[in-house]
Amino acid sequence: MVRKCLASVLLFLLSMQFSGLQSVAQEGETHIRVVVNMVQLNVAVTDKNGRYITGLRPEDFVISEDGINEKIATFAEGDEPTRSLLEIPRAATPPAETEVTPLVPPSPGHLDDASGFAAAVIGAKVFVLFDTSNYMYRGFVFAQDAISDFVRSLDTADQVAFYSYSRDLSRAAALTSDRSRLLRAVRSTVVGDDAALYNALLLTLKDAARFTGRRVVVVFSNGPDNSSVVPPEDVAELAQSAGISVYMISTHQARLEPVSTAVFERMTAATGGKAYFSKSWRDEKLAFDSIRDDLGHLYSLSYYPQPNPNRGWRAITVRVAGQNVRHYQVRTRNGYRPEPSRFTELKPEALNRPPAENSTDACCSSPR
To answer: Is the pLDDT higher at 100 or at 361?
Structure first.
């Protein structure tokens, strides 16, 4: 009888120890989570006379990446709500021959839950970058007026940030819906030092890349860059890979400098934006009006890339299908470069953490 009792106790202790080891093993398990990234496109469609084509449907667009046809995941026209056309992918094990890699930068594409998707489809996020270098001595007040009118005219659903630059970047107003704060920031700018446009634009793009959804940078520049240490080609590639459209408004004085003119036109075309060269303050206002009109007529498309072994530059092609669309012009970014796989994980609340307001960044400035 005593032996039976001791055997029962021993079995009980062994079972408890085994269950404890099992729970420890479960706690120590490594869970591999695959994040599926979404490529977002801002697409403008116009006829041969430059008039916007409206009323197109998702099935009217054909998207290919490196010649591989892609399925549209989300779709919207202008300011209408974005609708999902495909089920949002969840964590899954990729095929053995396929390596899932994040896009550049990793944060905007992470839409593996409902909250991330919702954040990606709320109105546009517009970053205004104002040249306050010594090139702006003439017409400074008129430029402030044009920017102020542009900020007022944007839809209240859009969020706007206002930055200025000369040799350094000043984040005068972080991304906000408060138009009064933005207007105060515009009016508080003063003329500064030499112009480091590409340094400032690179930092602005990095800030914009921290957010999801449709992101646009609008640059007002009065002259060439004479202080940057980063090449414009690197800045353009970051904008393309992050899916950020760049619009540039410059004065007629800048157009007299052929190098700056060519750079402005190439950069905006590659990102799906536009370049404007204004002869007067009235033309500046018209340019801002054109950008606002463009934002109101853009189609927002997105897709989850099909398996693609190419780890270099991936070319994106968007066209409108049909027999009567041969004269349509499609404007969007022309590609992106995937980033090598990383083994870090960003918390969701960190993705939309805004940069510090009224901060000045001189990380890219050349020696004084």
So the answer is: 361
